[in-house]
Inverse folding.
């Protein structure tokens, strides 16, 4: 008898949906489209030659090791390098506090696997990173949401949400994806204190922390928590699980991220990872180490900052020039994205249809909201497109928005007023 597959899938697959961003990525592979949709780094900044040389030297000097199975925790010299880097910010972490993962996306999935029971509540920002929702929907999580403003998560709304006793708080403190905002130092302290008071752990997702273009670096939550716990000098054992990645500083194609957490949490995540993929590619880890070491990564991050700062500025000035007055947007101090809010009754999904006809793409905001709101919002990426094309793309998008607003008495992109 032929299998009826639909009757065989596990219940947890019911909430697995394709990501809007990944669908749009297929579309935007067409060269004539100006895409502000994906979170893609600029291909011009990939250190291709350094990777080529590193591949050769890894194979020549450690070929059989690089092609062999290796430990789940990850390549030790790379973990030591990450630890040294973290110590710079004033936190004592050793290699035993670090697990290398196949992209930080895998870290999110492993956290889901290790912590989430069906029906558990997770406290997320509204909007939040779509990939986290995708990872945790698969573990049948429910969400409690906290709104954002220009200073990041609204910590004045935290208390009520923490009383529900969520499994953990998920927060993107630096150059939020999708919102582009940064959590203020005052709110970082408040979050640490309140999470500690209620005994709720924090997942700090920080892929963009090094990509700051203006203003002062703010200490990560994991560092502030370490200070708050009075833990100075001993290996990290606090309330925060910190995750980051080489995707935005080296290249996303190597799929290399990491988790920093108390040793006992790392041990649990290691077990979760063994069931997932045994370990992250030995070869990729050794090559990334070879590329990054000796100060290359620090210099390279400086170059990336300059390139992206220029693109951010190009987008901000084009928005001023071409967008209608009643549309607003965030002014990110770093990262890859800014966030646009349209007048209440415009639907970003419908605007996207018109924009695609003009060969320009973005991601409608709705999919970043765990509560399904945000129809009048959208995310723009500024790292991928070159500055001249950014101006052209924003000009086209501006015309689409002007046209939609002018049509306000007809159907067009307008949604009915809420009752
Ligand atoms: C907030 C956030 N977390 C995690 C990821 C996953 O990144 P990767 O798996 O490439 O490390 C991304 C990617 O864009 C992201 O924006």
């Amino acid at each position: 008898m032929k299998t009826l597959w639909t009757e065989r899938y596990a219940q947890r697959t019911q909430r697995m949906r394709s990501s809007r961003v990944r669908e749009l990525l297929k579309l935007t592979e067409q060269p004539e489209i100006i895409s502000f949709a994906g979170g893609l780094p600029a291909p011009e900044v990939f250190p291709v030659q350094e990777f080529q040389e590193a591949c050769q030297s890894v194979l020549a000097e450690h070929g059989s090791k690089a092609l062999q199975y290796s430990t789940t925790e990850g390549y030790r010299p790379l973990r030591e390098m990450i630890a040294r880097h973290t110590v710079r910010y004033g936190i004592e972490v050793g290699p035993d506090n670090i697990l290398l993962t196949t992209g930080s996306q895998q870290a999110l999935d492993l956290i889901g696997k290790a912590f989430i029971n069906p029906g558990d509540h997770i406290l997320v920002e509204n909007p939040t990173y779509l990939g986290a929702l995708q990872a945790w929907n698969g573990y049948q999580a429910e969400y409690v949401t906290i709104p954002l403003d220009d200073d990041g998560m609204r910590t004045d709304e935290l208390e009520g949400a923490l009383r529900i006793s969520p499994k953990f708080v998920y927060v993107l403190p630096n150059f939020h994806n999708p919102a582009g905002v940064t959590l203020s130092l005052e709110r970082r302290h408040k979050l640490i204190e309140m999470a500690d008071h209620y005994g709720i752990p924090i997942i700090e997702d920080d892929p963009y922390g090094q990509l700051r273009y203006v203003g002062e670096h703010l200490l990560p939550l994991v560092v502030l928590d370490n200070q708050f716990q009075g833990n100075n000098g001993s290996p990290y054992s606090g309330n925060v699980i910190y995750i980051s990645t080489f995707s935005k500083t080296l290249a996303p194609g190597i799929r290399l991220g990491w988790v920093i957490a108390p040793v006992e949490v790392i041990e649990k995540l290691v077990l979760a990872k063994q069931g997932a993929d045994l370990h992250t590619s030995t070869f990729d880890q050794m090559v990334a180490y070879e590329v990054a070491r000796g100060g290359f990564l620090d210099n390279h991050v400086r170059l990336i900052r300059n390139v992206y700062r220029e693109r951010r500025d190009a987008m901000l000035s084009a928005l001023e020039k071409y967008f209608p007055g009643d549309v607003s947007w965030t002014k990110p101090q770093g990262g890859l994205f800014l966030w646009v809010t349209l007048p209440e009754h415009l639907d970003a999904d419908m605007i996207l249809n018109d924009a695609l006809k003009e060969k320009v793409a973005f991601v409608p905001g709705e999919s970043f909201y765990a509560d399904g709101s945000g129809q009048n919002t959208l995310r723009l990426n500024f790292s991928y497109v070159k500055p001249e094309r950014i101006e052209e793309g924003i000009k086209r998008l501006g015309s689409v928005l002007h046209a939609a607003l002018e049509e306000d008495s007809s159907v067009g992109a307008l949604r009915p007023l809420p009752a």
Summary: Confidence is low (pLDDT under 50) at residues 412-419.
